[in-house]
Amino acid sequence: MNLIEKQKKISSGILMKERIITYEDCRKNHAASIGKYAVDGCCEFMPAGEEGSHGALKCAACNCHRNFHRKVVHQFLTYADCSSISSTPK
Q: What are the C-alpha distances in Å from 58 to residues 41, 46, 64, 74?
């Protein structure tokens, strides 16, 4: 899931700050009812349905809701050089 937060013009290009969110290992405590801590070992969230459906928030591997998976936010800057792009048609 990509999200471009903001764009900043620089002399010959555009500097873009991008944020990619991934959901990794499942943190659901399956032994909470007996006062212990045990996870199922699911290492990555895989949606069980199409985007926009109820299944998109359910993991196909462990059958848990996406909120039980550890959310990791990756942020980075990219630079697009616009000096080679001509604004007049040839």
A: 16, 8, 6, 22
Q: What residue type is 90 in one-letter code?
A: K
- Model pTM score: 0.64
Q: What is the pLDDT of residues 58-69, one digit of tens each?
A: 999 999 999 999
CA–CA dist 59, 42 (Å, integer): 9
* Cβ(16)–Cβ(3) below 8 Å: no
- Tokens found for residue 61: 């591997």
**Residue 29 and residue 42: Cα distance in Å, rounded?**
12
**Considering the chain, what is the average pLDDT of its residues?**
81
User: Cα(54)–Cα(90) distance, rounded to whole angstroms?
Assistant: 49
Q: What is the pLDDT of residue 37?
A: 93
